[in-house]
Design goal:
Layout lengths: L1 H19 L4 E7 L13 H9 L1 E7 L6 H10 L3 H4 L18 H7 L3 E6 L13 E4 L4 H8 L6 E7 L2 H8 L4 H21 L5 E6 L18 E8 L17 H6 L3
Parallel strand pairs: 1-5, 1-6, 3-4, 3-5
Antiparallel strand pairs: 2-7, 6-7
Helix pairs in contact: 6-8, 7-8
Length: 258
């Protein structure tokens, strides 16, 4: 009798989660200025475990020009700068926010509680449809850990700064740059551990752009590079459409996963 009751409870729980969507928890992480060549088992063991267990490409591309707000606007709206109208890299609190629907809008319509957590004030431009908006220059990852509730149907977009400061000062792929990346990965370990308490989850790790030497935002090929990692607890993703490697094509593909 107890065994039958357990089976019935498990079945009802499964049906409830299925009705809610493929993944109870969806977290998209953009590590600002992350060069794909920095991703490795030694430099970022926590991120690399996701890459090793899911989909990983070093061939994703940014916008033209490859700059933070322009790129993130394309990422979240699923539109190129020519279509979404965001061709400059500036925004200040109090100014108009993006008018287009974003990945946050989509998640909200699917019944997710939505959070936009970011390390640069300009990304507030994308917060129109977020249930919760948090700016934290130094502690964005900690804020995400605090906000995350594995029992809630939740979507979080997390932007992490640090490499975008270290790159121009010390150089992309320098020892200092890699140390900063290792620190970010260590912080993310706590977030990943909490996400894994969710019955089903999707984690995306990517970036807005990279850089070369001590330069970024230029037309140098290295500046356009970004990694793309997609990990799902519901089964290993081994391939994605070519369009999903374009920063304005990622939104459409992710919407098919949750």
């Amino acid at each position: 009798m107890k065994t039958l009751l357990f089976i019935l409870i498990s079945l009802v729980s499964f049906i409830c989660y299925a009705a809610d969507g493929c993944c109870r928890t969806v977290v998209v992480i953009s590590v600002d200025a992350l060069h794909p060549d920095a991703v490795g088992s030694g430099s970022c063991p926590n991120i690399f475990r996701l890459a090793d267990g899911g989909f990983f490409s070093r061939d994703a591309l940014s916008t033209d020009p490859p700059k933070t707000l322009i790129a993130h606007t394309a990422m979240l709206t699923g539109m190129s700068p020519d279509k979404n109208g965001k061709k400059d890299n500036e925004w200040k609190p109090g100014e108009a926010k993006a008018a287009q629907d974003t990945l946050l809008s989509y998640a909200g319509k699917k019944g997710y509680s939505t959070s936009l957590i970011y390390s640069k004030k300009k990304l507030g431009y994308l917060g129109k449809d977020a249930d919760r908006e948090i700016f934290s220059a130094e502690d964005a990852v900690d804020a995400a850990v605090s906000v995350l509730n594995p029992e809630e149907k939740q979507f979080i977009f997390l932007h992490i700064s640090g490499l975008d400061t270290e790159g121009p000062v010390s150089g992309w792929m320098s020892a200092e740059y890699m140390d900063e990346f290792s620190f970010i990965d260590e912080q993310l370990g706590a977030l990943f551990n909490k996400i894994k308490k969710s019955p089903s989850y999707l984690i995306v790790v990517t970036s807005d752009h990279a850089g070369h030497e001590k330069i970024h935002g230029s037309d140098h090929p290295e500046d356009y590079k970004r990694p793309l990692i997609i990990f799902s607890s519901e089964g290993k993703i081994t391939d994605v459409p070519a369009d999903a490697l374009k920063i304005d094509g990622l939104k459409g593909y992710l919407e098919t996963l949750f």
